[in-house]
Design goal:
The chain has 251 residues and is an alpha+beta fold. The protein has helices at 17-30, 36-44, 95-110, 125-132, 148-161, 191-196, 198-206, 226-239; strands at 6-11, 31-34, 48-54, 57-71, 74-86, 116-122, 138-139, 166-167, 172-173, 179-182, 215-221. The longest helix is centred in the middle third of the chain and has 16 residues, at 95-110. The protein starts with 5 loop residues before the first strand and ends in a 12-residue tail after the last helix.
Length: 251
């Protein structure tokens, strides 16, 4: 049965105790080595949460924190997305991406002349692809080396957010064990996926320790044209003809 997913942005202070319980339960379903104390501490440090629900209740979330850094004499703003998980019944749906893009656009409207970036850390290829497939300017990327100016910007965001965990020489963030790692068998990066998708192969090359919970630091530019690009991309996807299924052959 199809279950329609709805998304909304909720301030951390507006979450009910039931929401917090459901969020941790869902998080612990897909991540190993997690504790409620660490989860609550990380949540308290965020500003907002994208909450996804269907008729059964909470089915996903992503925590958000607004950042500001000084880079080359100019203020740059960022939105950091922290703990993020969606129930497998809704893997592949676009609701989270749409709500997050609206959130970025609202942040851009608050400071129309200042650069705005999505600061992302990824310990799974699906999260990396969410950025790489939808944001024209993102770093690091397989198409070309990261320019020195963009690397310095990325280092500034990561060093501010995780001063004790970020390694600028590798672009990786190593947290204490209780920060969590994907459970065995959740979104595995198979040899077939790596061979057929250069972005997945690039992510695995940059973050060979992803299965141990190590994160790759990334940034993506939220330009004024980004919402239009996103809408056109998904319109093209919807209008693309679907190939007729190949009839099964008997043996």
């Amino acid at each position: 049965m199809s279950r329609r997913l709805h998304g909304a942005v909720v301030p951390v202070s507006g979450l009910s105790s039931q929401d917090r319980d459901a969020m941790f339960t869902l998080f612990a379903t897909y991540y190993a080595d997690v504790t409620r104390a660490r989860f609550d501490m990380d949540l308290a440090a965020k500003d907002d949460v994208i909450v996804l629900r269907d008729e059964r209740g909470l089915q996903g979330f992503s925590t958000l924190k607004c950042l500001r850094i000084e880079h080359e004499g100019r203020a740059h703003y960022g939105v950091f997305s922290g703990d993020t998980v969606v129930h497998e019944d809704h893997w592949g749906t676009k609701v989270l991406g749409k709500v997050f893009l609206r959130y970025l656009f609202v942040q851009r409207l608050k400071r129309p002349w200042a650069p705005l970036w999505w600061f992302l850390i990824s310990k799974g290829y699906k999260t990396y692809l969410l950025m790489a497939n939808n944001f024209p300017e993102h770093w690091p990327r397989y198409e070309q080396p990261t320019p020195a100016t963009r690397q310095a910007l990325l280092d500034a965001f990561a060093s501010q957010a995780f001063p004790e965990c970020y390694d600028a020489s590798t672009g990786l963030i190593r947290f204490p064990a209780e920060s969590g790692r994907l459970k065995q068998g959740v979104a595995p990066a198979t040899e077939a996926l790596i061979a057929e998708n250069p972005r997945i192969a690039f992510f695995i090359d940059k973050n060979a320790e992803w299965a141990d919970g190590v994160e790759l630091a990334c940034i993506a530019s939220m330009s004024w044209s980004m919402p239009v690009r996103y809408a056109l991309k998904h319109l093209r996807d919807r209008l693309r003809p679907v190939a007729a299924p190949t009839p099964a052959r008997s043996t």
